């Protein structure tokens, strides 16, 4: 009898797992891009940088700005919408070109745009990043999920090897100063306070959430909440005024282990019922 109950529990758990995994893979996520192709600039959302009409976007309805982003004196290079846990997205010039008829988009950053990794943290040099070579993104998820962001260079020969990533809750409003310095004096593990500021380039709407200084970061995304991403190079002796190099971003929505939870719950529940019946007999 117990063996039959065990088989039934496994069958129920497997069915639940199949349903769960099918839901994860059924919906489509999307990456959207600013269509302007100003190499080295900041992804301005207005045709005249601080004035003019909104620049059309790729991947949005009618070319509108994504996720309700407002056409103010700010910049935005890309946006990513996650539909389900378990999905992965790529933000890259190659993705934009393949999906939008050869479109050319501005995705690049200097090797010191976020900051400069200290060669000797015990004898640090003063370093800083620069807004003008920083790139900007938006992420929103339809479900609660852990999100992992990984940044890497596109061309192996490029003089950039490490990236810094800062995640904020919310979307920026108001004007930024694109010549702002940031992360001044940052030292990994010793002085990370400079990276924990709200609205580091001015304006409002951004609440610091987390950062990563080694080309990746993870955070928990609440369903429907917009998150802003600032990213840039973070190399030893990085140059915040240096040559911008192309990058790509891999965004992974880590799946909640629903199938495992379902399996355990079904198994323990049915075995427990069987034990109670056995004792009653």
Q: Can you characterise this structure?
A:
The chain has 281 residues and is α+β, with helices and mostly antiparallel strands. The chain has one domain (29-255). The protein has three helices and 14 strands. The radius of gyration is 23 Å and the shape is globular.
Give a brief description:
The protein is α+β, with helices and mostly antiparallel strands and 281 residues long.
Task: Compute the separation of the termini in Å.
Answer: 13 Å
Output the strand order for the largest sheet. 2-1-3-7-13-9-11
Secondary structure: number of strands = 14
- Gyration radius (Cα, Å) is 23 Å
Provide the structure class: alpha+beta
Please mark out the parts with pLDDT under 50 across 5 or more consecutive residues, or reply none. Answer: 1-28, 275-279
Count of alpha and pi helical runs? 3
Mean pLDDT, rounded to whole units?
Answer: 85
Number of domains: 1
Largest sheet: 7 strands, mixed
What is the ordering of alpha helices and beta strands? HEEEEHEEEEEEEEEEH
Give the strand content: 25-35%
User: Which shape, going by the Cα principal axes?
Assistant: globular
Helix fraction by DSSP (H/I, runs of at least 4): 10-25%
Structural features:
281 residues; alpha+beta; five-stranded antiparallel sheet; disordered N terminus; disordered C terminus
Topology:
Layout: H1 2-26, E1 30-34, E2 57-58, E3 78-82, E4 88-91, H2 93-99, E5 108-109, E6 129-130, E7 135-141, E8 145-153, E9 163-169, E10 181-182, E11 207-212, E12 216-221, E13 226-233, E14 245-254, H3 258-280
Parallel strand pairs: 3-7
Antiparallel strand pairs: 1-2, 1-3, 4-14, 5-14, 6-10, 7-13, 8-12, 8-14, 9-11, 9-13
